[in-house]
Amino acid sequence: MKIFLDTANIEQIKEAADWGVLDGVTTNPSLVAMENKKFEELVPKIVALCKGPVSLEVVSTDADGMVAEAEKLMEFGPNVVIKVPMIPEGLKAIRRLAQREIATNCTLVFNATQALLAAKAGATYVSPFIGRLDDAGHFGMELIQQIVAIFDNYAFGTEVLAASLRHPLHVVEAALAGADVATIPWSVLQKIVKHPLTDRGLDQFLKDWAKVPK
Ligand code: G3P
What we know:
Helix content is about 55%, strand content about 15%. By secondary structure, it is an alpha/beta fold. It has a single domain (about 1-210), classed as Aldolase class I (TIM Barrel, Alpha-Beta Barrel). It has an eight-stranded parallel barrel, surrounded by seven helices. The radius of gyration is 19 Å and the shape is globular.
């Protein structure tokens, strides 16, 4: 499973890249707004730090506007993926961009039929939002299982990108369900790298090493 970082924060992206675990980055308008920096100044830094795909989201709600925005966003680099909302105009934009071999990430996917439509339109990735489904009283991870099964049944090339992951078990469950990608917030990446027994074991090893005659 590929690991993308769900952030627009430069320091977080740099740290994950240094760990050697960063396969890509996903952003959205809310994550960009949290950085309080000009988009045109922020994105070149993200694209330079992340060698893998970087999803940048359009904010138009009509296909012509989305495609025009995509053309501008592609100027940031060859690894840019155009993030498009799962609405009828979004499907039109995905189809037009796919015809030009421009990679897309269909976002705000909340059921399997939306994912099926996005795949048929030619999306490179679909992003089901697991945590938000859990918030609404659904078992979000079932959606990943359904989409993976459907895409396997019909050999769609579209990748399943598990999004809105909120805690370590979401990452484990996404991997078990066969998600192609998990996009992980920084807070969750920090949790999955740690285990108290690792820290306790290292502490003991260092204490014992200090007793070895020098
Ligand atoms: O990738 C989508 C993600 O950023 C949404 O996460 O926690 O706002 O539901 P969340």
